[in-house]
Amino acid sequence: MSSPMYGGVGDTISSPADVLILTASKSRIPAHSRVLAAASPVLERLLDQTEKRIDGSGGAISISILGVPHGAVDAFLRFLYSPSRCGMLEAKGEEAAAEMAEHAVHLLVLSHVYQVGWLKRACERALASRLASEAVVDVLVLARRCDAAWLHLRCMKLIAKDFAAVERTEAWRFLQEHDPCLELDILQSLHDAHLRQKRRRRKREEQRVYTELSEAMDCLQHICTEGCATGHCPDSATCRGLRQLVNHLALCDRKKRHSCGRCKRLWQLLRLHASICVQPDHCQVPLCSQFKQKMDQSNGKDEEEDEKWRLLVKKVVSARIMSCLAKRKRQEGFQDQEQPWLKHNLLE
Ligand SMILES: [Zn+2]
Ligand SMILES: [Zn+2]
Ligand SMILES: [Zn+2]
Q1: Which of 17, 61, 69 is nearest to 43 (CA)?
Q2: Domain 199-333, CATH 1.10.10.10 — does that match?
Q3: What tens digit of pLDDT does each residue of 282-304 get?
Q4: CATH architecture assignment, domain 9-130
Q5: What predicted TM-score, i.e. pTM, was given to this entire model?
Q6: Distance from the alpha carbon of residue 259 to the mean position of ligand 2, in angstroms
Q7: Residue 227 C-alpha to ligand 3 middle, in angstroms?
Q8: Mind listing the pLDDT tens digit for each residue in 175-219?
Q9: Pick from 300, 204, 224: which is nearest to 269 by CA?
Q10: CA 215 / ligand 1 centre spacing (Å)
Q11: What is the 293 CA–ligand 2 centroid distance (Å)?
């Protein structure tokens, strides 16, 4: 039997090949059972069973890898003999990269069937790096068949991003005709992803409103205790808006106040302040103690309204904590940056 032609581990194997890999072109590729068994648990089992069967006959073990072109089996074996070739896949012009580019689809199938995890991940990366809307449906089908979850996700992302182009491809039309279940599955996933994205956007928007309300509370406290004239505004734009609202209250027609949107807004902000105010007494924010008193008295008069208000207060408080933490983290970051030169003894 001739020696195997592989580099890497193959170079260090001086013993003659003891396995023959039969490929679709009826060629036989010599290989070493030790290398194959170490690389793939499936091949290890297969070799073990075959060895037992032919034990004592002295013949070489023959394994058939059919269903993919000869070149793909050859490339597969090269990778098994030299896993370090995976590191060369990024380099253009390298032999390993060229082999991967040519046989990525079949290498993914082989690495899935023979459970060679590292090669499977390399194939997924290679296929994902050249994904395009024309072929994405075919790659998606392949990823599903090979349980390649990461590649599947990448395909779904591209389909979601470029659905108009994907819909026009031959592969999509073929899928509609021959696999309506898969088509429905993809459409359902796209719909779910769209809903998730909408929910995330809504949540971000809500969070922004709560953060702004928390900042407004800081400004309100600052206006009522130290006065805006000091110039140390937590947020000058918010301060300006609040001052305008307070000025409006003084000018607004008393009879129309109950139906005035701006007055109502100030009223709600004052109530919100009272709900989060931790000052036991003598708080300088207008109506704070009156609102607190009212809250103590109104035990469950309007449960639905109370619940909504409680939830709002909770969200504003947690937004406040989050922004305090973020501020502290930023300050600590500054301190950390300062540390090297602050620690340095200038006389040394
Ligand atoms: Zn101010
Ligand atoms: Zn008004
Ligand atoms: Zn207060």
Answers
A1: 61
A2: no
A3: 888 988 999 988 887 766 667 77
A4: 2-Layer Sandwich (3.30)
A5: 0.63
A6: 8
A7: 15
A8: 999 999 999 999 999 999 899 999 999 999 999 999 999 999 999
A9: 224
A10: 11
A11: 24
